[in-house]
Design goal:
single chain; mainly beta; Immunoglobulin-like; 9-stranded mixed sheet; 3-stranded antiparallel sheet
């Protein structure tokens, strides 16, 4: 029993330290393969009231290829969490949907693409602005067929 308690005591701080913090990015990389880095600005995202409980959440996403191989983006996922990491909402777009919205899905080696997004959502309780955060994850394939991904964690504030 003492051994299990000791293992838990050692592993808990490591698990907490490895969790993604708002405003940070996480990418996967392997030498000799494509790599992408996702950056979200502004951080925090500033919600603008449209009318009633409707708010716009404008932000720019920049996806930069840093590994030296062309990338084809095949999925973008945005997730929203309440305090404590409780999932509140999530939405994914495949390559066809991304293209239908007028966005590029191909990144040349050592280049970047920009997405300007303005999702509109109803927020019925102003207290949620200080209690939610989200992440945006971009996934794709490089020219060798290797999987690549990058995630950025963001917070939200109100104008």
């Amino acid at each position: 029993m003492k051994r299990l308690a000791l293992i838990a005591l050692v592993c808990l701080p490591l698990a907490c330290a490895s969790q993604q913090r708002p405003g940070t990015n996480k990418s996967t990389a392997t030498s000799g393969r494509g790599e992408i880095k996702l950056t979200i600005t502004p951080s925090p995202v500033v919600a603008a009231s449209v009318s009633g409980s409707a708010y716009d959440f404008p932000f720019d996403a920049v996806v930069k290829e840093t590994g030296g191989h062309p990338i084809t983006i095949d999925k973008v996922t945005a997730s929203v969490y309440a305090g404590g990491g409780i999932p509140v909402a999530a939405q994914s777009f495949d390559a066809d949907k991304i293209k239908s919205l007028g966005f590029a899905t191909s990144i040349q080696a050592k280049h970047e693409i920009h997405y300007h997004l303005v999702p509109r959502m109803d927020v019925t309780d102003d207290h949620l602005f200080s209690a939610i955060y989200g992440d945006v994850r971009v996934e794709g394939l490089d020219d060798n067929g290797a999987r690549v991904s990058s995630m950025a964690t963001i917070t939200v504030t109100k104008k």
